[in-house]
Design goal:
single chain, Chemotaxis Receptor Methyltransferase Cher, domain 1, seven-stranded mixed sheet, 10 strands, globular, binds S-adenosylmethionine
Length: 277
């Protein structure tokens, strides 16, 4: 592993924050060393300083993409955090189906979608609930968008292909049976089901307005990586693309308290809901 010097750490830390918002505190030198050393060597650089110079002539953006893929933490699994999913299953899903039925369209955004488990978990619950209502075609009136900054994570999300290990993390057996086909050690999400989620690359530092308005936004387990300044602007942008009374769900350890006045904080059992005022 290559050693990073203090001036090099400051250069790389700034580069990473500028391009994906991830804020590295002092003491996180090892994180850059462990995640980027191979790439530094692969690019023929002898030091992080030389590598940083290469980022300046990265006309294709390919190097930036590789750095972001390496520095983002794509940890995710099916139905992550019981309390949030209890709320989603019991309240959000029926509410989204009602919106779809009454106004002809409901929109949901999984805004740090990683490899897709969050968006597909939600889709499974919507599908089951629509069928239970005797109205499976309600699903056609629901648009689910999954976005992430990591191209690598998105490739897996779009492919809808998961290893046995990934499948074993939170996915109930009956859902595996209903929505996947096994090919060797890989599980493939049914094509007709998979196409109901649109995945695209999107940086949360960018303007949200082109995405349109949403009834429900999941922005989970990502703001922990951001600076307070970025959190503030992020919550303000999220508020602008949530419909009135729309719901924003954060990760279990995340809060917008102290960063935004645009939401009413409410509780459903142990889940925290941020409702657009
Ligand atoms: C830990 S995963 C969380 C996945 C999922 N939401 C969950 O809770 O299981 C965080 C994701 O945020 C993405 N991410 C980090 N910075 C981002 C940014 N500036 N814009 C969009 N996505 C970002 C990472 O690529 C990663 O896939």
């Amino acid at each position: 592993m290559l050693k990073i010097t203090e001036p090099e750490f400051l250069l790389m830390k700034q580069y990473i924050e500028d391009h994906c918002g991830i804020h590295l505190q002092e003491g996180k030198e090892y994180l850059i060393e462990s995640r980027l050393s191979d790439l530094v060597i692969e690019t023929g650089s002898n030091s992080f300083q030389e590598f940083h110079l290469k980022t300046r002539t990265d006309s294709t953006g390919r190097l930036k993409e590789r750095i972001i893929d390496a520095m983002t933490t794509n940890e995710t699994y099916w139905f992550r955090d019981d309390s949030a999913w209890e709320y989603i299953r019991e309240k959000a899903v029926p509410n989204i189906l009602d919106i779809a039925k009454n106004s002809g369209k409901a929109r949901i955004w999984s805004s740090a979608a990683s490899t897709g488990q969050e968006a597909y978990s939600l889709l499974m619950l919507l599908d089951e609930a629509a069928k239970q209502k005797g109205n499976p075609s309600l699903l056609d009136k629901i648009e689910i968008i999954g976005t992430d900054i990591s191209s690598q994570a998105l490739l897996l999300a779009q492919a809808g292909r998961y290893s046995s290990i990934a499948m074993g993390r939170g996915l109930p057996k009956e859902k595996t049976k209903n929505y996947f086909t096994q090919q060797g050690t890989i599980w493939i999400l049914d094509q007709s089901f998979k196409k109901r989620v649109t995945f695209k690359k999107f940086n949360l530092q960018d303007d949200f307005m082109p995405l349109g308005l949403f009834d429900l936004i999941l922005c989970r387990n990502v703001i922990i990586y951001f600076s307070d300044k970025f959190k503030k602007s992020l919550f303000s942008k999220l508020a602008r693309v949530l419909k009135p009374k729309g719901v924003l769900i954060l990760g279990a350890s995340e809060t917008l308290r102290g960063f935004s006045d645009d939401f009413d904080i409410q509780y459903y059992k142990n889940a925290v809901l941020n409702i657009k005022k």
